[in-house]
Amino acid sequence: MGNDSTRYPLEGVRVLELGNYIAAPTAGRMLADFGAEVIKVERPGTGDELRGWRLHGGSTSMFFHTINRNKKSVVLDLRSDEGRATVLELVRHCDVVLENFRPGTLEKWGLGPEALEAANPDVVLARISGFGQTGPLSQQPGFAAVAEAMGGMRELVGEADRPPSRVGVSIGDSIAGLHAAFGIVVSLLERRSGRGTGTPLADRVVDIALHEAVFSMMESLVPDHLAHGVRRQRVGGRMEGIAPTNAYPCGDGSSVVIAGNGDSIFRRYMQAIGRPDLAEDPALATNAGRWARRDELDRAIGDWTSARSRDDVLAALDEAGVPAGPIYTAADICEDEQYRARDMIQDMRVDTGGDEPVDVGFPGVVPVIGRTSLPLRTPGPELGEHTAEVLGSLLVTTSENTEERK
């Protein structure tokens, strides 16, 4: 937990989060991690559906606690006149509105850019959706799975002889959230400079499309296609055109990743595994040559790693100056000294379904500013936990008993 001397760069910024699931809440989490006051508006009764995702015990999932830490929860019914009026009153006191409804939903509720600007001419509006606020697909619902497919990522994930795979997390949502948080901070800087003064809110909306956020991470996928007619292929644990870099099994049942694809690194690498013949082979002096013989190289490396424990493999490669690392499980991460040294696992007391709350480690704040990760303050809030506090402090009156909102 932070103390009075902890410096949070976004302290004093207030964000109204109108979002469910992962993308918008991820953006809100990043802003909250760095000190912004993030007021999360949730629907009565159920709240954000993420509360029940991967729920292994208790009433609130660790997923929700992770994505919505450091925030405040206010319950409002945006489908009611009173709920929408309350949102507009809150907007008067906020620097940012963050939402991830289907395009047109806010407008249908009377909460579109014009209404928000009338409530607060300086407000920053960030909108996350499947395909953005404009274009022929803008009205379609969007999910991370579809965004990853249409953004070009799915085509490259998995083995060449199998259908495309996922990476194991909702990476499309998270990437969109990162872009949204960046866009919000850029807009706040522009507002501070005064350069955006007089520009209508509709013309300065931070507009994040899930599939575009994924596409932005795809390196030279399209330029290579247009310039050279190249179609990237799925190559499993490898990276196309670069060798040898892959995951390899060890003799103790674990695995390691070894990135020995630099020209000088490759020579040291092959010496370390007892293959000086490969180290000195002129046909393997560059990545192009090594990629052509990638199967041969992977067999030689796999034979070497399979005869040794993970610790022995990593020690030998470290001595040779070859980049390598273990493939971690969650348990490995929790035990790792490097994570702990930078406060990347921080304990917060949460309900896990037992008789009493317990301390659970959560991911720290990234990026590090200074020496270690900023301290986490609170886990994801209980549904409506801050309704009375927020409405009572920011609004002149509240006409409804806050208990009836829950």
Automatic annotation (TrEMBL):
User: Which InterPro entries does the annotation name?
Assistant: CoA-transferase_III_domain (IPR050483), CoA-Trfase_fam_III (IPR003673), CoA-Trfase_III_dom3_sf (IPR044855), CoA-Trfase_III_dom_1_sf (IPR023606)
Q: What is this protein called?
A: CoA transferase
One of this protein's Pfam families, by short name? Answer: CoA_transf_3
Keywords of the record = Transferase
Q: Does the keyword Transferase apply?
A: yes
Q: Does the keyword Nucleotide-binding apply?
A: no
Which GO molecular-function terms appear in the entry?
CoA-transferase activity
